[in-house]
């Protein structure tokens, strides 16, 4: 039997489409003191790039949604970033699990410093799952653009290669963790980090793949 959360998720998506509303994506608000609001220009720039190059009609601005809110089920794609501490209480952990096992998609983007905290907190959401490295032939690397060597490296911090890590539920990738990559920095306004144009382009193209994967997995 289809669980009630899956039904809610898909009814919300169908309602948005039937009313010809622009689909929205959201940034995750979380407790613990970490800067969930980091990279403020990233998602608007990504949305504009996705709309132009993938011919989508996403709403131009991001929404913000709390990890424990029922509004989580309004969004096919949730973005999470920051540099510091993350804390999910039991209600937030349960809500995130229901969202992700009902068709939702969480993209965690380590902005350098998030890693030791998110690994602990995601265990509250999926106690029996560990992050696994996503093979380079997975659809998320070839959804719209081909990334035959996986994630692009946007910023250097400690010399480690970028890794695309994930958590699967019933064979489907539901959490995608871009680690040692700084993908969101590559989506920001060019003047903020002064990254070369080609580096920013690769980041944005990978963002198209992630958004496209999240949407195609749920519609």
List keywords for this structure.
alpha/beta; 7 helices; globular
**CATH C-level name:** Alpha Beta
What is the CA-atom radius of gyration, in angstroms? 16 Å
* CATH homology superfamily: Domain of unknown function DUF4159
Helix count, per DSSP? Answer: 7
- Helix-strand topology string: HEHEEHEHEEEHHH
> Strand tally, please?
7
Which fold name fills CATH's third level, the topology? Rossmann fold
Which sequence of strands runs across the widest sheet? 2-1-3-4-7-6-5
N-to-C span:
19 Å
Strand content: 15-25%
Fraction of helical residues: 25-40%
Question: What does the overall shape look like?
Answer: globular
What CATH architecture label applies?
Answer: 3-Layer(aba) Sandwich
Count of structural domains = 1
Structural class: alpha/beta
Can you describe what's shown?
The chain has 219 residues and is an alpha/beta fold. It has one domain (4-126, 135-216): Rossmann fold, CATH 3.40.50.12140. Helices cover 36% and strands 16% of the residues. The protein has seven helices and seven strands. It has helices at residues 4-18, 42-53, 90-101, 115-125, 183-187, 190-193, 197-216; strands spanning 26-29, 63-66, 78-82, 106-110, 132-133, 163-169, 172-179. The protein has a seven-stranded mixed β-sheet with strand order 2-1-3-4-7-6-5, covered by helices on one side. β1, α2 and β2 (63-66) form a beta-alpha-beta unit. The longest helix has 20 residues, at 197-216. It is globular and about 40 Å long. It starts with a helix and ends with a helix. The relative contact order is 0.17. Residues 14-20 have low confidence and may be disordered.
